[in-house]
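Supplementary notes for students who missed Thursday's class. We covered one full example, reproduced here. Read the sequence, then the structure, then the short commentary at the end.
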Amino acid sequence: MPSEIIQWFPGHMAKTRRLIAENIKDVDILIEILDARIPYSSRNPDIKKLKERKPTVMLLNKASLADPAQSARWQKYYTNEETACLLTDCATGDGLNRLSPAIHEILREKVERYEAKGMSGRRLKAMIVGIPNVGKSSLINRITGSKKVKVENRPGVTLNKQWVSTNIGIDLMDMPGVLWPKFEDRTVGENLAITGAIRSEILDTETIATALCARMLELYPEMLAARYKLGDLSKFYDLPAYELFLAIGKKRGFLISGGEVNTERTAAMLLEEFRAAKIGRMTLDRCPE
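Structure (token representation):
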């Protein structure tokens, strides 16, 4: 694992943590967005500490790219009295019709108190939090019906908090995407890199693609074998994952002079095909029993 994955812009993160801590008291509810392909790895532990007992709607976003069976397990795992968990795809809008009802249900008692005081038109306030590139800006643009915030398929586009009004009676406070200073678990760092939550230009993509090969061999061997026409995978279980990575490059014909594999091209292809679910719908984090 490259050292860059372990340390991640501590100054930027500290600023965002301060923003969340200073503003969370001013909102009624938290909208926490996770990547459905990595529902554990994409959950910032700092957010869990900062939110205390704030009511939460959790979105398992990019669900159309994730393993449906695993998504159902994670949805049940994260749902409790204070948290509703929805499967969404902010790029297509799928599942977002359930967001407003979920917010109003969780805040039902507060809304009833407002109405009893003659404040039935009072707008609810929600803070949107999540790691970089998880879909916060896409969510805002979807539920406002216009391009209010800049969206790019790379982390670190939103840099400051911003308020956005919607037509569902909720004002949204968008926060910058934030990772945490140090990943104690190597797998978490790899999963974040595989899904694109960490800027690709600072990473060794061959290392990340090799980690992806190991993950797919363990969790989705049939999809892996079918996509890259690898046949019997049993021979790879006792070999370093890098050998599997090279075998995929050879199968795709990504060769350079001397018959060696073009590892840079192979890595880029593997990461792109995983992120687009061309290999299949996969979830890299397994839900606790």
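Commentary. The chain has twelve helices and six strands. The radius of gyration is 21 Å. If anything here is unclear, bring it to office hours.
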